[in-house]
Amino acid sequence: GYVALRKAVGSMTAQQVHDEVKAAEIQGRGGAGFPAGTKWGFLPADVHPRYLVINGDESEPGTYKDRLLMERDPHQLIEGIVIACYALNAAQAFLYVRGEMALAQERLAQALNDAYANNMVGKNICGSTFSVDITLTWGAGAYIVGEETALIESLEGERGMPRLKPPFFPAVKGLYMQPTIVNNVETLANVPYIVSSGGSEFKAIGAPTSTGMRMFAVSGHVKKPGVFEVPNGVTTFRMLFEAPEYCGGVRDGRNVKAFIPGGASAMWFFPEHLDMALDKPTVDKAGSMLGSGAIVVMDDTTDMVAACWRIVRFFARESCGKCTPCREGTTWLERVLKRILDGHGRPEDIDLLMELSESISPGIAWPPRQTTICPLGPSAVSPIASAVRRFRHEFDHYIAHGRPIDGVESPFAVAAASHA
């Protein structure tokens, strides 16, 4: 093990490692998709100490690929962290894991102890002059600390709330007001392969605009939900959902009604998007994102009003409360949706939902415009904009009859008699 690390510290300079990652053109796997090599280059020269923070606080509904990596292959992640620190000339890394991921914490702690015992972490790694320490820590379950500045606040012992911007990148002022790079778990787990095989070989996998392999966590109405690693940018949604080696088709032979391509904060896609490639620029142009790599499939029995409410409820509960549009807006969005589900909706409620959405994300466009410090508030608008625009008739039916349209399954169905 740790072959790539031995190669990096034994026969490569820090700049050469950085150059390979840059040549690989690997996009961040945590949400924004920012190229990792470019982000590393934002660190100001000769300012120390500097830190690497690993965001393992995977918390959005439907996301579980990073948890799988931390549980199944913790040494690959640790190797990637050490190589990244070598390239960044950072002597300290902080691995922040979601509080509920007990198994991941346990296995990472054991792997980290083993790595220290075998001189893969610590002083003079592999007999070189390079030294780095990795501190494993975990949060208390707040979704908001997935936002990089909120994560940094939490690491500093403060309440996990996003920082005002500018500075826009922690690379300028991050942890303890020092230069800091924040990377996703999957991003760093790719670094050993890039170093051992070369950035050009990594780039040759997938599409020119979305390089390498990428992991997607697929859930919902498919026969085989799970985490699948596919060539980035060339695999289509239809292939992922239907191929026997992946999800094996939609359950019970039903049809796809809608799917969320990149986590709960993404705009929804529909059957006409099934033949679209899992390619960041293509998905961005179509009005959504690959985001956190969580794909949720909804078949033609799905109650879209209920599905919308479940996602909005999550964001309303996870708002940190710092920004008024998010704190108040998401709460009212959830209340209005629940009123409709309970059979007490009013005809004006749909316009009210859109007005509230407009106050959080002006224009209700993609990418969203923000009235908040971080994207959590606008994320709650995505399911509403998607569902109301495409399935307005389902909302109208709930308001008129107090129940979902015929043919859908909903735990929130209310008898029309009780609505009267």
Fold-level CATH name of the largest domain: Rossmann fold
CATH superfamily membership of the largest domain, which one?
Answer: NADH-ubiquinone oxidoreductase 51kDa subunit
CATH architecture of the largest domain: 3-Layer(aba) Sandwich
Main sheet overview: 4 strands, parallel
Shape: globular
Q: What's the N-to-C terminus distance? A: 68 Å
Strands of the widest sheet, in order across it, are 3-2-1-4
Cα-atom radius of gyration? 22 Å
**What's the total helix number?**
18
CATH class of the largest domain: Alpha Beta
Quick summary of this structure?
This protein is an alpha/beta fold.
Q: What does this protein look like?
A:
The relative contact order is 0.11. The protein has helices at 3-11, 14-24, 36-40, 65-72, 74-88, 102-117, 148-155, 185-189, 191-197, 199-204, 237-242, 280-285, 304-318, 324-341, 349-360, 376-390, 392-401, 416-419; strands at 51-56, 92-97, 133-138, 180-184, 206-207, 210-211, 213-220, 226-231, 256-260, 294-299. A four-stranded parallel beta sheet has the order 3-2-1-4, with helices on both faces. Strand 7 and strand 8 form a beta hairpin. The protein starts with a helix and ends with a helix. Helix 2 packs across helix 5 and helix 15 runs antiparallel to helix 16. The protein has three domains: 3-35 and 42-202, 3-Layer(aba) Sandwich (Rossmann fold), CATH 3.40.50; 206-292, Ubiquitin-like (UB roll); 304-413, NADH-ubiquinone oxidoreductase 51kDa subunit, iron-sulphur binding domain (de novo design (two linked rop proteins), Up-down Bundle). Residues 414-420 have low confidence and may be disordered. With 420 residues, the protein is an alpha/beta fold. The protein has 18 helices and ten strands.
